[in-house]
Amino acid sequence: MPRPRKCRRxxxxxxxxxxxxxxxxxxxxxxxxxVDEYETLRLIDQVGLSQEECGRYMSIARTTVxxxxxxxxxxxxxxxVEGLPLRIEGGxxxxxxxxxxxxxxxxxxxxxxxxxxxxxxxx
Length: 123
Fold this sequence. Notes:
Structural class: alpha/beta
């Protein structure tokens, strides 16, 4: 019997869930990127976390992150190269509740750190 899949912790849902090519013939093919794949791309490529840090953040093993990341990059590449629509939906994920003791995101997306002005820093 296979081991049950763990839900991957996701800080927030994406603001945009669909992307369409500007040029190209209409097609019935759409690339589906799951929410956990999107979160992996966001954490590694945008935030700059390592795969190990990403795994801690999402409460999964580094090897699982590597598998998710590989699939996600392949899907994004297919959408870009083939000019296919891309939709973000579904997946095995658990949305961060912002209050759990197991939350590893440090509320980074919910309460971004306040930037101080030069005047505030000198007072």
